[in-house]
């Protein structure tokens, strides 16, 4: 009996131990082993029999190492950030076993990252200070979380939670600063390659790495800008011997200029003059001019809060606008047209002089002709840019006769029927903008009696009524509804007989807000 009890108790203890080990195993990894496994290539290419861990010689090897350092750094940083985020969540829930196991994992990952980076690159002195402090805090975090496993004292655990939260915040801040320094160090290496090399291949590879980094968000773009990448890239764009790199360099500049620091750097090196030179140079390839247009579109975006750089832009505006409308006219594909027209659309928002220049350059004819060419205007995004320009031009009185001459009212009615070809939310949003701006343009142009009469003859009124009454026709957009109601009221003011009594009673006679509320609650078309 005693033997049986002893045997059962031992079996129970063994099961409990195994279960405990299995539970711990789910949350623990041998980080050093994982590092080696992650660094090993799955397959070995013929020209690289030694694998990725062996650094070759020559230019190609240097490019590979720079790229590999960046990728490893970013991958490791993401892992550590994820672990620290988990710790914050588990700490709030008081899951102490999970808190400790996550602290151990984070500590291992941080040490591994520091070790890997130090082995691959000489660490700057200021970064070494952060590394030492960070490693000490990670060890402190591991030790203090372990103490919390061996007590059930609520008062003690509460005080420990506050202390751990403070240390964890310090670790997060220190880690973020260290990664920023490491990335800045890597970026400086790339910029040095761009500035000091005469090899098109080496410079091109460094630019590719910078461009890849810009895709990781505004924070990295800010670091890249602060390290002087925009200055280095414009130096390339001012040398004829690197003409083949212009498009690549400008695409990277456009990405960096999503942040204010990038635009400020561009302004300091007279980047706008360089862009104007490339755009107006007939010997420049289309790809370079298209990417220059992309930079113009980026720096003139209404989303930017700073407008200081636009002062220097105004000096070159006539040349830039002229070059952009020519690029729209000669574009060989939809992407080139989209970049050029997006730049023009942004420019027409902030200066009425740009609209006057465009009218002088027969922009209305060029844009409306482009809409008939599916090779150039092939998506709702391109149509959005075209109708934006037309909406801004329609503020000028002399715009109406040109639109009539080019059969622009017919085009606007077609744009009022724009519908997405897929379930993509971005495409749906673009279609809504096209419909809204087409209605706004029609309303503005209908101040001219000839335009209003033409619109009515082309059955604009039934279409506008359909858009007001049928939510599905306007992609369930309230902004399209408001624009259509405004256009309908403008036409009704000039030609009251064009609206039937029932429609007048619901869509014209009430206050705009009342008609809006009536139409926005309709689920089926009454047409």
TrEMBL record:
Q: Name one GO cellular component term.
A: apical cortex
Q: Which residues does the UniProt record annotate as the domain Protein inscuteable homologue C-terminal?
A: 76-527
Gene Ontology molecular functions: cytoskeletal anchor activity
The primary gene name is INSC
* Superkingdom, natural source: Eukaryota
Which Pfam families does the annotation name? Insc_C, INSC_LBD
| Residue stretches in coiled coil | none
Please, one GO biological process term?
asymmetric cell division
Q: What is this protein called?
A: INSC spindle orientation adaptor protein
The organism of origin for this protein = Lates calcarifer (Barramundi)
Boundaries of every Protein inscuteable homologue LGN-binding domain copy: 13-58
């Amino acid at each position: 009996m005693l033997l049986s009890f002893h045997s059962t108790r031992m079996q129970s203890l063994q099961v409990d131990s195994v279960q405990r080990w299995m539970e711990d195993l789910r949350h623990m990894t041998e980080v050093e082993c994982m590092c080696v496994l992650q660094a090993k290539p799955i397959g070995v290419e013929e020209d690289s029999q030694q694998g990725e861990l062996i650094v070759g010689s020559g230019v190609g090897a240097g490019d590979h190492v720079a790229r590999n350092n960046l990728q490893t750094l970013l991958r490791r940083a993401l892992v550590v950030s994820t672990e620290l985020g988990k710790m914050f969540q588990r700490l709030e829930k008081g899951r102490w076993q999970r808190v400790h196991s996550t602290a151990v994992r984070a500590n291992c990952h941080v040490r591994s990252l520091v070790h890997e980076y130090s082995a691959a690159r000489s660490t700057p002195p200021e970064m070494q200070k952060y590394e030492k402090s960070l490693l000490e805090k990670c060890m402190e975090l591991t030790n203090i979380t372990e103490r919390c496993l061996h007590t059930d004292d609520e008062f003690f655990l509460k005080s420990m939670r506050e202390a751990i939260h403070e240390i964890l915040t310090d670790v997060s801040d220190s880690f973020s600063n260290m990664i920023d320094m490491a990335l800045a160090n890597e970026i400086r290496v790339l910029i040095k390659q761009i500035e000091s090399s005469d090899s098109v291949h080496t410079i091109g590879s460094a630019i590719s790495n910078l461009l890849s980094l810009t895709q990781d968000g505004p924070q990295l773009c800010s670091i890249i800008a602060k390290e002087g990448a925009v200055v280095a890239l414009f130096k390339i764009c001012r040398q004829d011997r690197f003409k083949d790199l212009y498009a690549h360099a400008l695409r990277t500049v456009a990405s960096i200029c999503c942040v204010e620091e990038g635009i400020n750097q561009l302004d300091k090196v007279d980047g706008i003059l360089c862009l104007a030179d490339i755009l107006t140079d007939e010997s420049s390839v289309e790809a370079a001019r298209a990417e220059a247009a992309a930079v113009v579109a980026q720096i003139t975006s209404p989303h930017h809060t700073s407008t200081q750089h636009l002062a220097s832009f105004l000096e070159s505006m006539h040349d830039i606008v002229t070059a952009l409308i020519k690029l729209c006219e000669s574009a060989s594909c939809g992407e080139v047209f989209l970049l050029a027209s997006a730049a023009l659309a942004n420019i027409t928002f902030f200066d009425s002089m740009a609209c006057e220049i465009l009218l002088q350059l027969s922009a209305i004819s060029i844009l409306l002709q482009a809409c008939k060419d599916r090779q150039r205007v092939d998506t709702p995004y391109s149509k959005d840019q075209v109708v934006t320009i037309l909406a801004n031009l329609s503020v000028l009185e002399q715009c109406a006769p040109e639109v009539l001459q080019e059969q622009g009212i017919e085009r606007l009615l077609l744009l009022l029927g724009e519908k997405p070809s897929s379930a993509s939310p971005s495409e749906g949003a673009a279609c809504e903008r096209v419909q809204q701006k087409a209605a706004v343009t029609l309303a503005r142009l209908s101040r001219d009696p000839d335009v209003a009469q033409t619109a009515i003859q082309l059955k604009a009124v039934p279409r506008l009524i359909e858009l007001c009454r049928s939510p599905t026709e306007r992609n369930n957009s309230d902004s399209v509804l408001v624009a259509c109601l405004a256009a309908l009221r403008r036409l009704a003011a000039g030609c009251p007989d064009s609206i039937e009594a029932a429609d007048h009673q619901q869509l014209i006679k009430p206050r705009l807000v009342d008609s809006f509320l009536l139409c926005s609650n309709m689920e089926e078309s009454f047409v």
